[in-house]
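1st attempt posting a full record on here, be nice pls
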Amino acid sequence: MKPSSGLSSVASALLAALVTFGASTAAQTPKDPSGENNTARDQQSYPAPTNLKVLPKQITGKQLHDIMEKWTLSLGVECGACHTNDPGHVGPDGKPSLKFADDSKPMKEVARSMYIMTEGINTNYISKLEGSGMPTTCGTCHRGRISPEPYDPTAQQTKCPPVAPPPDDNSPAPQPANP
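the predicted structure (as C-alpha cells):
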C-alpha cells in the first residue's frame, strides 16, 4: 500500500499520542519483586514490530500489542482475523503461532485503510472542533462487531420532543397583553 500525502502528519500525531501515553504510564509500569521495571521482560514478551506500513515505525512491541488489543476488542475479533497461522511454530497453548508480518490476509489491508480513515477524521475534523471531546476510534462505529450495524432511525426507543417551527417572517408580531 502506498502511503497518502497526509499520512506523515497522521503518523506524527499518533506517535505524539503514543509518546504521551508512554510517558503517562511509565510511572505505573508494574515492578517485579526486585524493584526493577519490567522493561527487559516486555522487550522479550513483545518483540520489536516489523512490516509496519501505517503505524509509526518507532513504536515498541508493547505499544503495538496494546493497540492491537484495543482493536480486537473494538471489532470483536481475535488476532487471526488479520494474521495468518504459522503451522511451523506452535505456541505454549498448543496452537500455531501467528505470522504478524505476513500480509496475505485481505483483512489486514482493510484494517490499515480503516486506521488511516480514523486518524484522518481525528486529525482533519475532530481536532478542529472546539469542545469535540473524545476522538473517533474503531469502537465508535464497530462497537464490538466486525461490521458496524446499519443505522435504523425507526428502531430508536427514545425520541426527541417535537420542536416548534420558527415564526413566519410575515406573521404579525405578538401584541402585549392589556392590563
